[in-house]
Amino acid sequence: MSHSLARRLPAAKQRRASSTRRHQNRAALFFLLPGVALFSLCVIYSIISSISLSFYNWDGMTPKTFVGFDNYIELFHSDTFYTALKNNLLWLAFFLLAPPLGLLFALYLNQQMRGMRLVKSLFFAPFVLSGVVVGLVFSWFYDPTFGLLRLITGHGIPVLGDPHSVTFGIIFAALWPQTPFCMVLYLTGLTAINPEVVEAARMEGAKGVRLLWHVILPQLRPATFMAVVLTVIGALRSFDLIAVMSGGGPFDSSTVLAYYMYDQAIKYYREGYSAAIAVVLFAIMLVYIVFHLRRMLREER
């Protein structure tokens, strides 16, 4: 009797554990369902819909007309597309200055000094401002008649009116809020650094650049990864400052793929052509994201 009871107890425990796991899995599924449904509706469906729309000619009102790859053929033969692509690459190259600048500011602000909280607030203030406000501020700054740039140089410089300088002027304006964003990421990472490791390295004689390169930066790798990825995505989807400061001009010299897409859809009612631009921009971002995800997974292993 006692032997049969002993055999039944583990079986009963296994049944209870199995039932508990089923309940936990069901509860987790119910919690995930709203997020999965929202993601599927707003992201997956939008991607599939944009890819499908890129094969049609549609003005948003009349019936769609299937045109196959005509939108892509026209896009790859357009001079404006290559101008926008070149500007996106310029944004990408100069925007990557934000993570190292953010790291320098974070190292400076990560000190125990009187009034440092106020200084941190001043450094972080540009990130709180919207892109429209930043664009208006720098438009006034660049104004050749009464702008601050005229007061500094003594004569007006038409930064936003010159096709050769307008893109660089807008990128400089965009770096103003992007650098504090990277700074906050690095400040968060600096608070998680093991002080014992840093102290041990100092006792071994490491200091200055050697301490930063061999001890601090390896522990800031997650913050660096996030700063670089978000900076690159921000560079590729740049839109608001261009819309406020130059409208893609003069002569489409400052347009990027995101603004070119908006311009074709809103001004010229070319929804299919705009969707083709969106698909190309998504493909560029997807290649970059997959590359970095694979790299991150290799480092995790």
TrEMBL record:
Family annotation (CDD domains): TM_PBP2 (cd06261)
GO biological process: transmembrane transport
Membrane topology value: Multi-pass membrane protein
PROSITE patterns xrefs: ABC_TM1 (PS50928)
Main location group: membrane
Chain ranges passing through the membrane: 27-48, 89-109, 121-142, 168-190, 211-236, 272-291
Compartments, record wording: Cell membrane
GO (cellular component) term, any one: plasma membrane
Domain (ABC transmembrane type-1): residue spans on this chain: 84-292
Ranges for region Disordered: 1-20
InterPro entries according to UniProt: MetI-like (IPR000515), MetI-like_sf (IPR035906), UgpAE/MalFG_permease (IPR050809)
Keyword Membrane: yes
Protein keywords: Cell membrane, Membrane, Transmembrane, Transmembrane helix, Transport
Family: Belongs to the binding-protein-dependent transport system permease family.
Name assigned to this protein: Binding-protein-dependent transport system inner membrane protein
Annotated source species: Caballeronia humi
